[in-house]
Amino acid sequence: MYADSTADCIGACEAPMLLVKEKFGRLEKGQVLKVETDKPAVVRDVEDWAGNLGFSIEEQEKVAGVTSIWIRKTKEWSEEIEPTMQTAEQQR
Asked: Could you say which protein family the record assigns here (predicted)?
């Protein structure tokens, strides 16, 4: 699937959700962000974040230990208006 931007959260990505939110915030309504990660906790965080805010996960696949998630920006969004959400990594 085509993506307008990619958030590479593979390996030693220190703050994956910050990177995802930064990249997502730059998109226009209707555009797609591809998130790539090799960490199951990041997959859960991205799924929860997108679902809680009503964004559409268009596609998801796992190949050789790397999960790719395509999220469509279906409405206007910015970090300033997002409610605080505890990530799976913070819950540990």
From this structure: Belongs to the sulfur carrier protein TusA family.
